[in-house]
Every structure is written in C-alpha cells, then in structure tokens.
C-alpha cells in the first residue's frame, strides 16, 4: 500500500465509538445482486384468509409459496452461497436505525445478496462476542477468515446467532454477506451487535476529511421539509447544519412501491454555509406521497437519506364543481390527463373518447406484469378487462390480440399452476382474482385458458361461483382489512366492474349494494370527506397523504369535498357506474360525510366473527375513531387503532402508535408510522380516548404521535401535555411521561414522543363555544384530565363534560348513564345523533 493511501486511511475516516451491547451501524455496502428464482409451475392449496394479519407469532405471516418451500429445502441450514465479490458502492449511515436495512418490494420471487464491510479499531487484541440478526442467511468474516454463518431463511422472521471472533490490536476488517429470497414485501436486513470484548470503535475509510463527512451526516440527520405536506408553493428541505464545503446535491423523487412512474431527478450545487435546499414548485412535481432520496456529495464521498412528503395539485384543481354530473366529468378528465400511465388511466381515456396511440401505449406498458403474473397484476387486469370488453374496438388490432393472449395466459387463482408470488389470501386480492376470472371467461367464452385448461365459459362459471362466495362473506362480515383507506378503492375496483359488466343479474345487483355500503361506511367514518378512524391496514404513504389519497378523490366526485392525486384504482370505474350504468348514491350520505351541525356516534364491527369493533364520533369541527378491545398488547401488523382530525384543514390530523421500526420511510410491516409494533389498549367515549402501551422489549423504546404543528392554527406544548387548535376545534394529548417535541430530522415539527415502552396517552377533542371560545380557555378546562386505576383493570377519567368515564378491562365503557359494549356492536352498525350531553 502506498504512503498516500495509508495517510488517506488514517485521516479520512468515519470514527465512532461502540460500547458493549450496541449495534455496529456504519458500513460500506455493495450493490444488491438480484437473480430471479423460478420453480416449476404448480398449483397451491388454500383459500382467502380473512385473518392473515392477525399474527400469532410476532408479525409472521404463515402462508408459504412453493418458491419458499423449494428455496428452504435447497438452502435452509446450509452455508449461504456467496455469488459476487465485494465491491463497495456506497456508505450506509444509520440515522438511529440499529440495522443495515435494504428492505423493499419485489414483484416476482428474487434471490437477493449483498456484501457489507466495516473497519473497527481495537486498543488491544482479544476475543469479541457478536450477535448477528437477520431473516435470511448471512456469513460473517473477520480479517479475511470466516467466523461463522447462519441460514434460517424464515420469510420476514428474524433469527439471531452469537459468534466468537478473535480481534487483533489495531485495524480489523469485518465483512458480512447476507442474502434471502424476496417474495413481494421482503424484510432484507442484518444487525450486528457487539456484545463483549476489547474496547472498539468504528474507523470506516472514506474519501473526504472526517469532519466534512461528519457535517454531511449531521446535515442529513437534521434535514426536513419546511411543511408537513404541500398543496402548492415551493417544495424545499432545510437543515440546521451548514456544510463547511460546497456540495453537489442529487434529489431522486419516487412514489411508493406500487408506483410505475419513472423517478424525477434534480441536481444542483449547495454553496458552503447554505442550509435550504429548494427543489421545485409543487405543481412541477408528481402528486401523491413521494419519497425524496437526497444525496450530498463532496469530492468522492456521498451520503444519502430518504425523506417523505405529500404533494397535491390542489391549486390547479381548485374547488369541486357544483353538480354530480360535472364532478363525474371532472374525475374522468383528471384521471385521463394526470394519473399514472396504467390501465386505469387508459380506461378513463377510452371512456371520454381519447383512444389512440397514447392510450394503447399505456395498455401495452402494463401487459408485461400481467403476462409474467407479477404480484398485484390483478389490480391492473380488472380495468384492462373493462377496456377490452367495452372499448375493445377502439384498440389497435395488434394490441387487442396481445391483450387476449395475456388474458388467456394469466393465473387466476392459486389452484391453477404457476410459480409466482401473487397474494391470493387477502380479501381485496381475492375479489379481483375472482372478478377477473368471471369477466375474462365471459369475454372469451370459447377460448382455452392456458393455466386452468378450461374453456372461457367454464372459467367464467368457476369465477362466478367464487364471486358469489366472496359476496356471501362480504355481506356477512364486510372488510377483513377493516375500514382501511388504501383498500376501499381496491374493493370498489372489483365491485364496480361486477356492477357494470357482470352477465348475471344477481351478481350485478349484489355488487351495487356492496358499493353503496362501502360508500356509506366512508361517509360515516369521514370528516368533511376525509376518512378518519381506526384502520386494519395502513401505510405511511396512506396515513400522511390526506388530500391526494384516492378516497379523497372519490369523496370529491361523490360529495364535492376532496382532491385528486395520481394513483387511482376505482375512481373512473365508479364514475362510469354513476354515468353509464344507473348507480345511485343515497343523497343523505352527503350530509353524513360532511356534517353541518350536531354530532354523530357511529359504532360497528368488521371482519369475520366481528374481530374488529370500531367506534367513531364526529362533529362539524372534529372527529376521532378507534378500535375497541382490539388485540391489546399483542404484536401488531399494519393496524392504526386511533386517528383524529381537527377543523377543515386536511393536514390537521393526529394518530398515535408504537413504531415497528425506527428507520423512517422504511418497508417494515409495521413501519415507523404504519401500524404498531405492539398494539395498545384503546378506549374511546365521544371526544375522549385513552391509549395505553405496554410494548415488547424487542421493539423500539418509545411511542409517538403524528402532530403536525404547522398545520394547526395554534399549538402549546408543556411538559406532559400538547394542545392544538384548528378552526373551531381543539385537541389535547397528555401522557404520564414527558412529551418530547421532535425538532430535527424528517418529522421535525410533526412528531411528539413519549420515551419508554410503557406509556398512557389521553386524547381529548372539543369544539369552540361561548364558554370555551379560546384555546387558553379550553386548556384551562381540560388540562388536568388524568387516568386513575380502578378495580379489576378499570381505567377511570373524570371529564369536565362527561363526568366519570369508566373504561373496563373487557372494553366496555360506562359514562353519562350509558354503557357501550363493543361485544354487542353489529356489522351493520348503529349511528346515533348526539346532543351536547347525552
């Protein structure tokens, strides 16, 4: 090694101490080596599983595909296969995460493999103990010698092994090869904990002076958007740390894992000392919740971090038209002109007379996913069948032939042979598979469907029977993924296709009733058109997006409140049901979706055997919904169990959860915001709720609330209490430990934390009136609320308005002379008009 190289390694390094018991979190990474993993086509056994996310062991999903069975037989318990040489391509910076986490979403079975390397310095030689955690396989090397390996290969289920490693005095090179089979969502990470041994520190070689690299990391650690969401104006990131040198900035903007749009990229210089990174006007950026990967480069050293924010083109869209007919036209035009270029957009274009090469290209671009049976191809196929069946004469003949070939070659259910990882088990996917088989078979009745071997009319009959069974289940139990904002549109996608296109009258009529029922649930759970309440499946990109979520667009079209994003599943199908097929939405739902006065209490149940009991209370000024007695203290999946909104600002929303991971904008299920690592005990009575956490020791050591201060008109945070006002609504959050305002990083100004794994939160909403006209007056009235323990696990709150509110250990609530018993709540539900005091 040259003297210059030795000097660079001595002077150009990220140096971080590592104490015993801490993870080693600074690494150089190679690229992810990806190789498709196909097995012989074969059928599977199984049915829709309405309980799949009610996990029995941590958050492990039990369904296994043939590819995992084959992969496990081939590799589980055997030394992992190293497929590439080590070549560093980037630096991994932790930003509080203990893991090197490359989790993501792969639409076909794919073997992943990656090298990681770090350098540790020791003051003296000695044996060190490490613990290695991963879900897949890993091989650990120290100073070129193999120290051990592990190969549990449990799908998205973490395992851990301990290794003894001899370290020499001075520099030690630690390398890890880790691999796994990705099937759809893959938790692809490792964590290396230093348990004991000589004193060590990381000394990771880099291509710039250490103090410059430190400043780059600190700038990214502090960085955040100026606003919690954008409905217009300049989009910019800011940081409190100025770099000592000029840096090059690259910004890559992508949607969530389902987005098909090409990333949007910006590049510019960040002068020395400048702390604001202006990117573009919101109207120049794609709508929806977007991830911004920001990379700072000085010399040859680059540091990156991902930030998320919602973009909505509300300024361009303006207010909704006054009439339903005009709003239907607007919705179809919005999807046709501004949506992602998929089959949903192609359907909207065909429906308003925009056939031609551009529309054909959208369909052509979607076909490879269907032809290859990618996961979520059923989302693409159902609107494609509508395009082919109703507007097929407007497609180019060559394209129409290719569409037919794709329809005939698709795998419509798990009992047909295939080697894909399409997700058959959830309610929303099952509906689309069965709808597609029913309609596709009817479209090509005398053609042979490749995988089933059936003629189209036979395929259609099988699909019809399964559609009817699905409708039986829905009519009995409704949504398994209860009240879930991202899954209302998926169900509506299938139901609208059935209502408009089903050859059988009974199926069409039942689908129409189901559409109206889902719209009723949305109306009752919504606040001014925005869904507000507990949800069985949620994601950061569906929680933090308010205006651009598809339900907002549906509410705008149906009731005149909301905005449009870029991702659509059901909006044009619903528009066509209203425009062309005689669907009528009950007029009274408009007043329910957006109250003008009074208050509504809404209790109902969803999921087979009513496993989710849901409560909602709203007024014109505020709303809150929660899940009662739902899986207290169990490991969660993606459930959001309490959610509130204030005033008329869509961004003025609050929810509380226990993060499933500390990596922000990650792919965990649960993630930082989407779901809870451990589900809390939740009770709600009208505008009062108690949320009590007792979290697993294996999970993050804080609970937190989304609390976007800049979206509120006024905010006060004082010790264990936080107050907010938006419009004529007030809110208080109060905890039994001090509240910490997060002031740095991606959620600066938007997050409140309560340290520790045990915490009880009180949530109290209220409205402005003659007695409580100001935030200060409201604070004075409610600031002293507290929770005291009663007998047999009872929690009691003395409320200034409701009096003694007793929350019982069996989830009953006793207050104001009433007893609310979630065990009695029905799927149909009960809506009660409330007075000031009931």
Task: Offer a few descriptive terms.
838 residues, alpha+beta, 9-stranded antiparallel sheet, 44 strands, disordered N terminus
**Helix content bin:** 25-40%
Distance between the termini: 82 Å
Q: Helix- and strand-based class?
A: alpha+beta
Number of helices: 18
Please indicate the percent range of residues in DSSP E strands (runs of 2 or more).
25-35%
**Shape summary:** globular
Compute the gyration radius: what is it?
A: 27 Å
Uncertain residue segments:
1-10
Give a short account of the largest sheet: 9 strands, antiparallel
**Quaternary structure classification:** single chain
Q: What features would you describe in this structure?
A:
With 838 residues, this protein is of the alpha+beta class. The protein contains 18 helices and 44 strands. The strands form eight sheets. Strands 1, 3, 4, 5, 7, 9, 10, 12 and 14 form a nine-stranded antiparallel sheet that branches. A nine-stranded antiparallel sheet has the order 36-37-32-29-28-27-26-25-44, with no helix packed on it. The longest helix has 22 residues, at 456-477. The protein is globular and about 80 Å long. The N and C termini lie far apart (82 Å).
Mind sketching the topology for me?
Elements: H1 3-11, E1 13-18, E2 23-24, E3 27-29, E4 33-36, H2 66-75, E5 90-92, E6 100-101, E7 104-122, E8 126-134, E9 137-142, E10 145-150, E11 159-167, E12 170-186, E13 189-196, E14 200-205, H3 210-222, E15 224-225, E16 229-230, E17 234-238, E18 247-254, E19 264-270, E20 276-281, E21 288-298, E22 301-311, H4 314-317, H5 324-338, H6 343-351, H7 357-371, H8 377-391, H9 397-409, H10 427-443, H11 456-477, H12 488-501, H13 505-525, E23 526-527, E24 530-531, H14 540-543, H15 550-559, H16 571-580, H17 589-593, E25 599-606, E26 612-619, E27 622-628, E28 642-646, E29 653-657, E30 681-685, E31 688-694, E32 702-706, E33 714-718, E34 721-726, E35 729-735, E36 739-741, E37 751-755, E38 758-767, H18 775-782, E39 787-789, E40 795-799, E41 803-807, E42 813-815, E43 818-820, E44 830-834
Parallel strand pairs: 16-22
Antiparallel strand pairs: 1-14, 2-13, 3-5, 3-7, 4-7, 6-13, 7-12, 7-14, 8-11, 8-13, 9-10, 9-12, 15-17, 17-20, 18-19, 18-21, 21-22, 23-24, 25-26, 25-44, 26-27, 27-28, 28-29, 29-32, 30-31, 31-38, 32-37, 33-34, 34-35, 35-38, 36-37, 39-40, 40-41, 41-42, 42-43
Helix pairs in contact: 5-6, 5-15, 5-16, 6-7, 6-8, 7-8, 7-9, 8-9, 8-10, 8-12, 10-11, 10-12, 11-13, 12-13, 12-16
